[in-house]
Amino acid sequence: MQASPTLAQVALPLALPHPLLYEIPPSLRGQVQCGHRVAVPLRGTRAHGIVVGLTGASAKSAGMSLRPLEGLDPADVLLAPALLSLVRWVSRYYAAPIGIACETAVPRVVARPPRSASTAQSGARGDGQPIAQEDAQSGGRKAGGPDAPEGGADTRPPGTPLSLNPAQAAALAPVVAALEAGVNRTFLLQGVTGSGKTEVYLQAVATALERGRTALFLVPEIALGTQVMARVRERFGDQVAEYHSQLTPGTRRRAWWQAHAGRARVVVGARSAVFVPLRDLGLIVIDEEHEPSYKQSETPRYHGRDTALMRARLEGAVTLMGSATPSLESRRNVEQEKYVRLHLPERIAARPTPRVTLVDLRSKQEGAAPSIGGLDVVGTGDADRGEPLSAYLRERLQAVIAAGDQAILFLNRRGFSTAVQCRDCGYVFECPHCSVVLTFHRKRRLLRCHYCNHELREIRACPECAGHDFAYTGVGTQRVEAALAEQLPEARVLRMDLDSTRRRGALATMIADFERGAADVLLGTQMVAKGFDFPRVTLVGVINADREMGLPDFRAQERAFQLLTQVAGRAGRGNKPGEVVFQTYQPEHHVITAAGHQDYEAFYQRELAERQSLRYVPFRRMANLLFDGPDEAEVTRVAEAVAQRLTGRSGVELLGPAPMPLSRLKGQYRWHLTLLAGRPGLLTALLHDVLAAQWARRGRPRVRIQADMDPASML
Ligand code: ADP
Ligand code: ZN
User: Fold this and answer.
1) For the chain, where do the domains classified as CATH 3.40.50.300 start and end?
2) Nearest ligand, CA of residue 453?
3) What is the CA(439)–ligand 1 centre distance, in A?
4) Overall CATH class of domain 352-413+477-611
5) Which class does domain 117-349 fall in?
6) In angstroms, what CA-CA distances link 532 with 223, 292, 498, 515?
7) Into which CATH architecture does domain 621-709 fall?
8) Please, what is the Cα angle at 414 between 411 and 420, to 5 degrees?
9) 162 CB near ligand 1 (under 6 Å)
10) What digits encode the pLDDT tens for the residues 96-137?
11) What percent of the chain has pLDDT over 90?
12) Global pTM value
């Protein structure tokens, strides 16, 4: 027998370059394991961290006087070996301190087991709410067996699997084979909007469960995931737990511990669910794999999809990711035979993809114009100039409402107008802390910064010229809402954006209301654009199809194509065919025409060629070093010094340093230095080089440096 380890390496949730060493007191020897959470003394207080290493040497022999651990808290191992390996990978690959990576995987809110029902304070719905009760509440049903009756989807009780069409069956078969063989394999399910990807996911999950394994089902964000989550619950009942940051801490903690205890066999959740301790993980589903919200925008800046792929590799699981508009990275991985492509080229029941009409916002002639790229075009009349709804879109809305159908209107901008400008001197109200204009919110008559929430409650006079005449330029969702109220008073409108869904539960209520037909029009920001399946929607209107294309980001066209294709894909998912209206100033743009035809291949080939000529992602790997601080000159100086230090490293190309497009945010000046290399390992090593020096220093530096490996946004 080997002697029990006497020293523990503890990763504390602090920006430290290494874990700290503590002595294991005799009372705890033989008990402490890697992955345990322990209480330790730290600078006169008590802190908690995760044990990431154990050694046998004694403190004295190492010539150190070390302080002892104070205890295990809780007694369970929170990070099993595979998950600990995953966290180490996140820490290394994304250049984040190990303790911060541990904290992300096991946040403080889940670190303690929920108290049992009998000990819950007040005995009511506290942390101790029994699981069965919670599941009964959400309508938990047992999984429908594979022996479900044949027939149409609508006649079956909820929770019963649908019988797959031939394309779905062909897509599912290799996934089932991989699950049966128990191999680590990655599939990319590329299927047009409405092709029935969700049913393939659900049946893959059922297969994993039948094989005695568990499944993780990732959705990009909660707004998108709400309907999917309901479907997973419907199908698998009380084996399902939800896990995401919008849950109350108690619910989140219960979900985590249900998975830990093996009682939850399916976990549906957003990015952070990738760390939930499901045992015997067999399958990871990644819905809408292209979504940028899978990337965390603070340290550790991990990508949920890529972290899931690493977890699947570590645990020998199968990954099934899907999208109608795969990211260029994933699609190229198919070509390089890293992923297996599964294809659903048609909508369910051979429903047509929706017909797209372009409203040319430049033309002064109302009515039909020559078609562009095979798409119908109509002009706007002069009378409509500056109005959010063109005459054509208004007319289509009227027709849809009269027919008792539903419409979705999409505008990726909340608030009333985007800006308030002085008509006398041209002054535009800007946020004093961020380099962005303030957005006018009509209901409360205030200007608000959409980055830092700074509010200007009164607009009395222009601060530049003391003028009183203001123009409200640009359009936000509240402005469209007002236009609808005026021009289509009969329409019952639901507005879905960050402002209208802040309250917990508001989003789910809105979705349910729209589903049961309590409104005719669902108007909103990108929340309404993706993922939803509302079979009664026959019309989708895009108020401004050009907005995303103009953003200063190398992925702007990819994002625009994805968003337009996804939003168009919300129309005609039921028995009636759908129609889509794009209002645009650039009707000839290839992104508009490709999205208009739901033609991923056309877009992909063209965009890929462009990326290749620039030797950008996915042909090389990218990392961003972010610098921010309150003093512009210091930020510039540090960014330039780092660039100087990295200049001349072989195999790495530097772009910048330069101010970021959003050059000031919440009072902080922002610069970045972009690194490109053929292999990610080179970049990771450089990021660690730069950051280790910062982590070793105490206190908050005047200029903070952060690493963003595989950045999802350059703004
Ligand atoms: P996607 O995710 O590919 O956009 P969904 O999975 O939402 O598409 O499916 C679109 C619609 O088709 C849904 O209403 C779904 O219930 C229905 N559907 C999917 N598969 C089948 C099937 N095999 N038989 C009948 N209806 C199906
Ligand atoms: Zn601001």
Assistant:
1) 117-349, 352-413+477-611
2) 2
3) 38
4) alpha beta
5) alpha beta
6) 9, 17, 17, 10
7) 2-Layer Sandwich (3.30)
8) 110
9) yes
10) 999 999 999 999 999 988 875 333 335 333 333 333 333 333
11) 66
12) 0.89
Q: How confident is the model at residue 364 (pLDDT cuts 50, 70, 90)?
A: confident
pLDDT in tens, 564-573: 999 999 999 9
Q: How far is CA 621 from CA 292, 557, 675, 708, 712, in A?
A: 16, 19, 8, 12, 12
Q: Are 250 and 127 in contact (CB under 8 A)?
A: yes
CB 29 within 8 A of CB 22: no
Which residue has the CA at smallest separation from atom 4 of ligand 1? 194
Minimum CA distance residue for ligand 1 atom 25: 153
Decide whether any atom of ligand 1 lies within 6 Å of the 193 Cβ.
Answer: yes
Whether ligand 1 lies within 6 angstroms of the CB of 165 is answered as yes
Measure the CA–CA gap between 419 and 416, rounded to whole angstroms. 9
DSSP-based three-state secondary structure for 93: helix
Which listed CATH number (3.40.1440.60, 1.10.8.640, 3.30.420.40, 3.20.20.70) goes with 7-110?
A: 3.40.1440.60
The pLDDT, as a whole number, for residue 106 is 96
CATH 3.30.70.600 segments of the chain: 621-709
Determine which residue's CA is closest to atom 15 belonging to ligand 1: 196
Check pocket membership of 533 for ligand 1, CB cut-off 6 A: yes
pLDDT on residue 127? 36
**Relative to the alpha carbon of 438, which ligand is closest?**
2
